Amino acid sequence: MAKLYVTGYPWHVTYLWLAATDEGLAAIEFERTCSFAAFKSSFEHEVCQGYNGILRGAIAQLDGYFRGNVQDLDMPVIFLRGSEFQRSVWQRVRAIPYGRTKTYGEIARELGVPAAVRAVGAANGANPLPIVIPCHRVLRADGGLGGYSGGLEIKDALLRLEGAIL
Fold first, then answer.
1. Are residues 139 and 101 in the same domain?
2. What whole-number distance in Å separates Cα of residue 68 and Cα of residue 64?
3. Residue-level pLDDT at 45
4. Left, alpha or beta for 146 (phi > 0: left; psi -120 to 50: alpha)?
5. Are the beta carbons of 76 and 23 closer than 8 angstroms?
6. Residues 59 and 88 grouped into a single domain
7. What is the pLDDT of residues 32-76, one digit of tens each?
8. Residue 77 lies in a domain
9. Residue 135 is a catalytic residue
10. Do 52 and 88 reside in the same domain of the chain?
């Protein structure tokens, strides 16, 4: 089993917990949803607190993103969890361009399962890499924010950062 490196990242809205193997970024969690200790213990891997090349690259890209200088978070990712359907949703969501939004229904239709709107929402809620897989860019059909694992204030802050809402 691959070693997992974990660290914290300070964003002015909340702390982020990051985890990566040498193959890719594996998880991002918001401090408000779990403690760092709980984050570290949630993996079935050997966990090492510190940095590897993937985490250093991810932090550099996140720094640029939060400053408004980077729009494409193109770091390598690895999925340690998730069903085939969830992963297909996450791949579609990752393709939503910076500053743009889609609805849960649009994602379901793109996947060829238009009735799976709730399943798309559930997959978004299980997204292990918020921000990098920008589930904050997925809205309700009426334009409402819908849900967000980190809280609607964070979803709103991310959309405002990207200029998707004013």
1. yes
2. 6
3. 87
4. left
5. yes
6. no
7. 889 999 999 999 889 999 999 999 999 999 999 999 999 999 999
8. no
9. yes
10. no
